[in-house]
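Morning run. Coffee first, then this:
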Amino acid sequence: IRATRDESACKGALEELTRRAKEGGNLLEGAVEAARARATVGEISMAMEEEFGRHRAEVKTLAGVYGAAYEGDEGFAAIQKSVEQFAEEEGRRPRMLVVKMGQDGHDRGAKVIATAFADIGFDVDVGPLFQTPAEAAQDAVDNDVHVIGISSQAAGHKTLAPQLVKALKEAGAEDILVICGGVIPQQDYQFLYDAGVKAIFGPGTNIPAAAEDILKLIREARS
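And here it is:
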């Protein structure tokens, strides 16, 4: 497309589209004219993004729902006590970032985990949908988390998890643990462990037990 287009005409059409986004005007007409000038879909999107920004698909969670279901449960109370003890020893609670990377938009599992771990006593951050591994790593560094939990429901784990581990190393944040959860075939587990993933939790995982395992991993990494 770019090899056969008039660059000056294309640039002018994109600039006109940006102007309409800022000052008002028919955006559809402007986008069609840019396409006629052989602008790519990405370039047309970027021309409008200069004014409107890019949509961030935020994952929203609720508090107290999971904890209420486990009220009076001894195992749940035990992990809450362990988290409180960790906070007393370390001066802060264990902190986890739950991420959805790639084109996996199935966020229900991530919401359940984030809500449950928050009710257990973890500080939990949730990244937006469709992050890149580099973006997730930067969020983890910025939020000073102990662990990143990758929620995977769409078979991207063998590509995205190793890329996240690599991005953390490049950021000098190898101390941040990477774990995975979701629909991950058993035959892929060893590949992920070899890539640097510290734990994998599949469907049906007991969440208080998983929290205990993760807290143990954090303690071991800091000892």
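The domain at 65-222 is CATH 3.40.50.280 (Rossmann fold). Good start to the day.
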